[in-house]
C-alpha cells in the first residue's frame, strides 16, 4: 500500500516537473534594496508579455549576494542567468570574459539615453557588459527646519570645514539629535566607500602610479583624523556599526541633522510613507575640502548575464526590459514617480512628472554627471573608480582597511596605529598579488 | 575543514588497546568492522586531502589568471600575518573563558536544580531553553534587544540608573561574544551535570550528613569529585564546538572592530569568502585542523584517564 502510494507520488512529481517544458527559466540574483523589490513585484507584467519565459528570484542581502554571485561565476556554476552586480565587478569580470557583452541592443532601448558616466562605468574596452538598473552618487542631506532655526544657510557646494561647524552647532544629544551621521560599519562598500571620497577631496589616493599603497601619507592621516573626530564628537553612539540602512533609519526618524550618503536615499527620505522628515529635507552636493573632485562617488547596480547561463537570450530580454524607459514609466505609474529608479537615464530627468515628484532630481543628476572615475584625485592614479580601486584585490584590501578604520573609530587603536596596520596589510596583499605589474 | 575534528576524535576514541579479549570461537571479527571504519575514514579523508591540496595551490576565485603550485607560499603568507596570531589568541580566550563560565555556572545551577522546590519542572525547562535557540537568532536578540547602545535593555537600565550606555560590541567585543556564547551553552553544562548529580548515591550523602558534613563540605568533598568525569565530558564536547564559533561573531561584530573579535574560524571565512583566496583559506584550515588535533589529543587523554579511574 505504502509503496504503491510512493510510486504514484514520484510519478506525479515527475509529470509536474515535465509540465512547463518549453518555457525558459531565468534565475535572477538580486539585492534586497527597495528598488529591486519593486522590480520583483512588477515582473508579472514581463511574464505576461513573454509567456515563454519563467522568472525565478533569489533576493539576497548585499554581502551575501556578492559571495554567491562571485563563487558561482568564478567556478562557472551557472546557477544564475541574471546577476545584479556593481560598477566595481563589471569591468573586472568582463576582462575574465565571464559576462556576455550587451551589444546589438534594440533601437527603442536608446542606449545613448543612459548617462555617460554610468555607461562608462559598466564598459570594458568600450563595450557595454551590463545594463544599469539604477545609479547613484553621494550627496549631503540636511534638516531644513533645524538649519533655519540656527540661521544657517547651506550653499549648493558646502565645504567640510563648514559641515564640521554646523555639526557642532546642531549636535544636541539630550534632544536625541546628533550633529552628523556617517557610515562607520566596516566594509569596502560601507565605511570605505565614504572614506575614500573624503580622502580624495583631502588630496589623497589609494595607490600612486607605481601601485605603492598611500595609506601612511598625510592626506589619509588628515582625512581619517577628521572623520574620527567628527563622528566621535557629533555623531550618534554606536556609529561603528552604522551602514547605509542604519543611517537611513536614524535620519528618517529625525535623529541626525546632517548625513552624507548615496543619492538613492533622496527618494526614500522624500517619500512621506517611509520618512518622518519628508517635508523638512534639504540637499546639497557632497562637501569638499582642498581638492574639488572625487568627493562624490559613482555606483550603479546593474544587471548582467554571465556566460555560464543556459538561457542567455531570455535573460537578455529580461535585462533589457528591466532597464528600459518603459519599465521606468511603469514604476512611475504604478508606484508613484518618486519611486522611479534614479540615475540611469537622461529621459527620466527630462520627464516633467519626475521633476515634479522629485525636487532633488537636478542635484542627483549633477552629482552623477560630475563623478569621474578616471580623473578623480589630486595626483594621477593608476586605477579607475572613485570610492574603490578597480582591481580584484581591492575587496580584500577594502575589507581589511575598513576593519582598521572602524577600530580607530571605536578607540581600540589610535588613527596612526590603524593607518600603519592598514598600510602593512595592504602592502602584503599587493605583494602577494604580484604588484607592481 | 575543521568539521573533521569531531570525526577524528571519534575515530581516535574507537580502539581500546589491551582490552580486546580473544573470543572463544576464534573468529576474526575485524572485517565486520570494516564498513563503519571505511565510511568514517572517507568522511574524514576526502575533505582533509582536498584542503591540503588547495593549501598548496595559488587559487583565488577573482583572479583566475594566477594559478599553479604555490609551494609553501600560502603558509608563509599566513604565518607572517599578524592577524593570524591575534585570531589564535582570540580563539583561545574565547574557548577558555566560555568553558570557565559554563562549567562554574553549570555546576552551581545543577546543585540548585537538584534541590526540591515548588515549580522545579518549569524552572528546569526555562533554564535549559537557551540551548534550543539557534545561534544566529540568539545573537540577533542580544545584538538588537539587549546590548544595543540606543534601543537595548542594558542601555535603558544603565541610563535609568544615571550612567551612560555601554556600546558593547564596539568597546567590549570579545567580552560580549563570550557572554552570548556562555548564555547559550550554560544549559548544556547544566543538563549533563544535573544528570550526573542525580546519579549520586543518596546513601552516600546520608552517611556524610550523619558524619556531620555541612553543605559546603558536602559540595566540595562529595559532589564535586563525583562530577569530575561529567565535567571532563562537558569540557571536551564544548571545546570541540567553541573552536569553531562563527555565527555569533558573524551576526554581531563581523570580527571587528579591527581584529578584536576575529577567531580562527572567522579569519578563514574572511580569507575564503570575503577575499575569495581559496589557497590562503585552506592553509588557515590546515592550521585549524592541527590546533584542533592538539587539543583533542590532550582532552581525550584526560577523559580516558577519568573513565578508567
Write up what this structure looks like.
The complex is a heterodimer of chains A (437) and B (309). Chain A is built from 18 helices and 10 strands. Chain A has 437 residues and is an alpha+beta fold. In chain A, strand 1 (24-31), helix 2 (34-49) and strand 2 (53-60) form a beta-alpha-beta unit. Residues 12-21 of chain A have low confidence and may be disordered. Chain B has 309 residues and is an all-alpha fold. Chain B has 14 helices and no strands. The two termini of chain B are 34 Å apart. Residues 1-15 of chain B have low confidence and may be disordered. At the A-B interface, helix 3, helix 17 and helix 18 of A face helix 8 and helix 13 of B.
Lay out the secondary structure.
The complex is a heterodimer of chains A (437) and B (309).
Chain A: H1 2-18, E1 24-31, H2 34-49, E2 53-60, H3 62-74, E3 82-86, H4 89-95, H5 116-121, E4 123-124, E5 127-128, E6 131-136, E7 138-143, H6 144-149, H7 160-170, H8 191-201, H9 218-234, H10 244-252, E8 258-262, H11 264-269, E9 281-285, E10 299-304, H12 312-322, H13 325-335, H14 346-350, H15 352-357, H16 361-370, H17 394-410, H18 415-432
Parallel strand pairs in A: 1-2, 1-3
Antiparallel strand pairs in A: 3-10, 4-5, 6-10, 7-8, 7-9
Chain B: H1 4-13, H2 30-55, H3 73-79, H4 82-114, H5 120-128, H6 135-146, H7 153-160, H8 168-171, H9 173-198, H10 202-210, H11 215-242, H12 247-252, H13 264-274, H14 278-308
Helix pairs in contact in B: 1-2, 1-14, 2-14, 3-14, 4-9, 4-11, 4-13, 9-11, 11-14, 13-14
Offer a few descriptive terms.
A: 437 residues, alpha+beta, five-stranded mixed beta sheet, three-stranded antiparallel beta sheet, globular, B: 309 residues, mainly alpha, flat, disordered N terminus
Helix content of chain B: over 70%
Shape of chain B: flat
Beta-strand proportion of chain B:
under 5%
Strand content of chain A: 5-15%
Strand-pairing-aware structural class of chain A: alpha+beta
Output the strand order for the largest sheet of chain A. 2-1-3-10-6
Q: Please report the distance between the alpha carbons of the first and last residues of chain A.
A: 70 Å
Write down the Rg of chain B. 24 Å
Q: Give the number of helices of chain B.
A: 14
Q: Note the gap between the termini of chain B.
A: 34 Å
Amino acid at each position: 500500500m505504502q509503496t504503491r502510494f510512493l510510486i504514484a507520488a514520484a510519478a506525479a512529481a515527475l509529470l509536474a516537473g515535465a509540465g512547463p517544458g518549453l518555457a525558459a527559466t531565468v534565475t535572477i540574483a538580486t539585492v534586497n534594496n527597495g528598488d529591486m523589490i519593486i522590480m520583483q513585484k512588477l515582473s508579472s507584467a514581463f511574464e505576461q508579455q513573454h509567456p515563454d519565459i519563467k522568472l525565478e528570484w533569489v533576493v539576497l542581502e548585499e554581502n551575501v549576494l556578492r559571495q554567491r554571485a562571485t563563487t558561482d561565476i568564478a567556478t562557472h556554476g551557472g546557477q544564475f542567468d541574471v546577476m545584479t552586480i556593481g560598477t566595481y565587478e563589471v569591468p573586472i569580470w568582463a576582462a575574465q570574459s565571464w559576462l556576455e557583452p550587451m551589444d546589438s541592443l534594440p533601437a527603442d532601448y536608446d542606449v545613448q539615453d543612459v548617462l555617460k558616466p554610468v555607461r562608462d562605468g559598466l564598459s570594458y574596452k568600450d563595450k557595454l557588459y551590463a545594463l544599469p538598473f539604477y545609479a547613484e552618487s553621494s550627496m549631503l542631506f540636511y534638516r531644513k527646519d533645524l538649519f533655519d532655526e540656527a540661521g544657517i544657510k547651506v550653499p549648493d557646494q558646502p565645504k567640510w570645514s563648514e559641515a564640521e561647524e554646523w555639526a557642532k552647532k546642531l549636535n544636541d544629544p539630550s534632544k536625541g539629535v546628533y550633529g552628523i551621521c556617517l557610515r562607520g560599519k566596516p566594509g569596502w562598500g560601507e565605511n570605505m566607500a565614504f572614506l575614500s571620497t573624503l580622502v580624495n577631496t583631502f588630496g589623497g589616493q589609494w595607490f600612486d602610479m607605481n601601485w605603492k599603497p598611500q595609506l601612511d601619507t598625510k592626506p589619509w592621516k588628515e582625512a581619517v583624523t577628521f572623520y574620527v573626530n567628527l563622528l566621535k564628537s557629533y555623531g550618534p553612539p554606536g556609529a561603528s556599526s552604522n551602514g547605509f540602512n542604519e543611517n537611513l533609519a536614524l535620519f528618517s526618524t529625525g535623529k541626525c541633522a546632517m548625513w552624507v550618503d548615496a543619492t538613492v536615499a533622496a527618494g526614500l527620505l522624500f517619500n512621506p510613507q517611509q520618512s518622518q522628515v519628508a517635508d523638512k529635507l534639504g540637499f546639497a552636493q557632497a562637501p569638499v575640502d582642498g581638492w574639488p573632485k572625487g568627493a562624490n562617488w559613482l555606483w550603479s547596480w546593474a544587471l548582467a548575464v554571465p556566460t555560464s547561463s543556459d538561457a542567455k537570450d531570455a535573460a537578455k530580454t529580461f535585462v533589457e526590459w528591466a532597464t528600459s524607459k518603459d519599465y521606468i514609466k511603469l514604476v512611475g505609474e504604478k508606484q508613484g514617480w518618486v519611486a522611479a529608479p534614479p540615475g540611469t537615464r537622461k529621459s527620466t530627468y527630462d520627464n516633467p512628472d519626475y521633476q515634479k515628484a522629485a525636487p532633488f532630481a537636478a542635484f542627483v543628476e549633477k552629482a552623477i554627471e560630475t563623478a569621474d572615475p578616471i580623473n578623480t584625485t589630486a595626483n594621477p592614479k593608476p586605477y579607475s573608480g572613485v570610492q574603490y580601486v578597480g582591481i580584484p584585490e581591492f575587496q580584500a584590501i577594502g575589507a581589511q582597511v575598513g576593519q582598521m578604520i572602524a577600530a580607530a573609530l571605536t578607540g581600540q587603536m589610535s588613527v596612526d596605529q590603524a593607518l600603519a596596520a592598514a598600510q602593512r596589510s595592504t602592502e602584503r596583499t599587493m605583494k602577494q598579488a604580484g604588484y607592481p605589474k | 575543514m575543521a568539521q573533521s575534528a569531531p570525526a577524528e576524535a571519534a575515530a581516535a576514541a574507537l580502539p581500546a588497546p589491551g582490552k580486546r579479549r580473544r573470543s572463544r570461537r576464534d573468529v576474526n571479527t575485524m572485517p565486520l568492522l570494516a564498513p563503519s571504519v571505511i565510511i568514517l575514514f572517507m568522511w574524514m579523508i576526502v575533505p582533509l586531502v582536498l584542503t591540503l591540496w588547495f593549501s598548496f595551490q595559488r587559487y583565488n576565485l577573482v583572479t583566475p589568471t594566477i594559478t599553479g603550485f604555490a609551494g609553501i607560499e600560502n603558509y608563509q603568507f599566513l604565518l607572517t600575518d599578524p592577524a593570524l596570531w591575534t585570531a589564535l589568541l582570540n580563539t583561545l580566550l574565547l574557548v577558555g573563558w566560555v568553558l570557565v563560565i559554563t562549567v562554574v555556572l553549570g555546576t552551581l545551577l545543577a546543585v540548585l536544580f537538584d534541590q526540591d522546590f515548588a515549580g522545579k519542572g518549569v524552572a528546569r525547562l526555562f533554564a535549559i531553553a537557551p540551548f534550543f535557540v539557534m545561534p544566529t537568532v540568539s545573537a540577533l536578540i542580544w545584538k538588537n534587544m539587549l546590548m544595543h547602545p540606543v534601543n537595548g535593555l542594558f542601555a535603558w537600565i544603565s541610563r535609568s540608573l544615571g550612567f551612560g550606555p555601554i556600546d558593547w560590541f564596539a568597546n567590549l567585543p570579545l567580552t560580549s561574544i563570550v557572554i552570548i556564547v556562555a548564555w547559550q551553552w550554560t544549559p548544556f553544562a547544566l543538563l549533563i551535570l544535573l544528570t550526573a548529580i542525580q546519579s549520586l548515591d543518596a546513601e552516600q550523602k546520608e552517611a556524610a550528613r550523619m558524619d556531620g558534613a555541612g553543605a559546603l563540605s558536602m559540595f566540595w568533598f562529595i559532589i564535586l569529585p563525583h562530577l569530575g568525569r561529567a565535567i571532563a565530558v562537558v569540557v571536551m564536547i564544548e571545546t570541540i564546538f567553541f573552536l569553531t564559533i562563527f555565527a555569533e561573531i558573524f551576526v554581531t561584530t563581523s570580527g571587528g572592530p579591527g581584529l578584536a573579535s576575529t577567531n580562527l574560524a572567522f579569519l578563514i571565512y574572511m580569507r575564503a569568502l570575503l577575499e575569495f583566496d581559496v589557497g590562503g583559506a585552506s592553509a588557515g584550515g590546515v592550521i585549524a585542523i592541527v590546533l584542533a588535533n592538539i587539543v583533542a589529543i590532550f582532552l581525550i587523554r584526560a577523559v580516558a584517564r577519568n573513565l578508567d579511574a
